[in-house]
Model the fold of this input.
Amino acid sequence: MASVEQQAPEEVAVNGNNGSAGSIAVENPGTGEVIAHVADLDAAAVHEMAERARQVQPGWEAMGFEGRAPIFKRAQKWIMDNQDRIIDTIVSETGKTYEDAQLAEISYGAHAFGFWAKNAPKYLADEKVSSSQLFVKGKKLTVRWRPLGVIGVIGPWNYPLTNSFGDCIPALAAGNAVILKPSEITPLTSLLMAECLQECGLPPDVYQVATGRGATGKALIDEVDMIMFTGSTPTGKKVAVAAAERLIPASLELGGKDPLIVLRDADLDRAANAAVFYSMQNSGQTCISIERVYVEAPVYDEFVQKVTEKVSALRHGHPQGPGSVEVGAMTFPPQLDLVEKHVADAVAKGAKVLVGGKRREGQGYYFEPTVLTDVDHSMEAMTDETFGPTLPIMKVEDVEEAIKMANDSIFGLGGSVFTKDLAKGEAVARRIHSGAVNVNDALINYTALELPMGGAKQSGLGSRHGANGIRKYCEPQTIVVSRSFPKRDIHMFPYTEKNTKRIGKVLKLVNRGKK
Ligand code: NDP
Done:
């Protein structure tokens, strides 16, 4: 198993500053300080990792669910026992708040270990199949799920535990070896999880961390049997092409531009609280963040007023422990430029900034929590993924216009509808073209690991969670067992006129259909 020490120790330090040509400096975006260096692994190093993974994978698979589950249960406990240390690591490499790390990372990681330990055997159990096909009558038909072998997971910087490491858990649970390439911006949590798994009894090299940049991710695709990618849509397309060239499966969780619709009969306090929380938590750097809001005209002014008050009250800055700030730093420095560009573009085209609207000067990378009104779809802030603490709000005439605007996007990850009429809410949800829609809520679908989570349109291919969230790391193998031994089946050689006619009659009988 890869750990900090095992990856070219001369180039890796967790709290030092001994960078060299082949290393990457890890910065704390909340303070701008360099907090560690990790190795920038090249294709040869990734190849060696894959060879080690291939050696140990059969043994890991042979341990079976009953052998693997106790390790996952220990890891679940390890996460809770070590949560302060994990939160410190996540906060230091992302600049997010204590609560963002606790609610969306610790809570997810611990739950996921327990969930997959319990549910992997159910989702991957052999399926006994019965068929109406006469040719297989009396035979035993089984579908089994065989792990693919070595899985590559490539992750983004916004949730190092949930989105980078989280996808390794079902891949491992299925009996695969996994190599994780975390974002170069946030590699430390993935390395800490290597320590977790090692202490919990995972055999060496079953989980390895390939720290590096985009080139390391590219090299990983060349080595593995399946690639699980989470990141931006442009990079996702490159990953899809690289996977297609090797003809390996790829599961892609990509960008989003999630809409929130407020209908005239909505509980406006709940809608405003949800809009503010789910657009600003994690500084808006969540694939399923609320990125744009459509409000029916009769309640527009009241909703905007409520949102403005709430966003003005948010505390913003570097967290000094629990409860200290609501909105933290931007994790990826260039992201600040993009958020600034979207706000400037909106303002140039007539938008009003009601709160915030600019980056904060001084140490660290911060953008003020921002509310925009008078927005429309000529503006990047309404059409492109902003991935920052901004909430553009647009007035719409009616529910039809709201649905039309919500669907006017290349993305289709999530969405929300607020109304007290639940039947109407569900009907609207069914008309939003996205992977998930919450009625009187947002994002919360992500926490229920029984529910598939994936993107429509350019938000991705495939899904995580639920049965497909583990079966995608396997290939289905069909096994047909003939339990009786007639010397010759009727359709076998030699062909005779009599047999052919008999088969013709049977085919007519079983496929008679209806007039
Ligand atoms: P990127 O697409 O920039 O990077 C994602 C990962 O891919 C990083 O580890 C990156 O390495 C690596 N990478 C870059 N180039 C290549 C390449 N050619 N081949 C293989 N790997 C490569 O995304 P971000 O890290 O900026 O993450 C933010 C994006 O992720 C947003 O669009 C967000 O919506 C999306 N996302 C989607 C989620 C979902 O579930 N749908 C969840 C979370 C985020 P490096 O960082 O070292 O360059």
Observations:
- The two ends are 64 Å apart (CA to CA).
- The chain has 17 helices and 20 strands.
